[in-house]
Design goal:
Structural class: mainly alpha
Shape: elongated
Distance between the termini: 62 Å
Radius of gyration: 21 Å
Low-confidence stretches: none
Largest sheet: none
Number of helices: 3
Mean pLDDT: 77
Order of helices and strands: HHH
Helix content: 55-70%
Length: 71
C-alpha cells in the first residue's frame, strides 16, 4: 500500500470519529402512554433494563404523558 495513503486514511478516520460526540440528538416519542408503559414493563421482564433504569424511564414517561394531557 502506498505510504502516503495510510496517513490520509488515519486523518479521515479521526475526523469522522471526532464529529460523533458533538452532535445533538432529539428523540420524539409519539407512542401512547399505555404503549410506553407496556414497552417498559416488557423491557424489565426480559432483562433488557434494570429495575433502576425502569423506575427512571417510567417516571420520565409519566411526566411526558401528564404534560401531553395538560396541553
Amino acid at each position: 500500500m502506498n505510504r502516503s495513503l495510510i496517513p490520509a486514511i488515519l486523518v479521515a478516520a479521526c475526523l469522522t470519529l471526532a464529529g460523533c460526540g458533538s452532535s445533538t440528538r432529539v428523540v420524539q416519542n409519539n407512542d401512547t402512554c399505555g404503549k410506553q408503559m407496556t414497552d417498559l414493563q416488557n423491557a424489565l421482564a426480559s432483562g433488557a433494563m434494570t429495575q433502576h433504569e425502569y423506575d427512571r424511564a417510567r417516571q420520565v414517561a409519566i411526566e411526558r404523558c401528564d404534560s401531553r394531557d395538560n396541553r
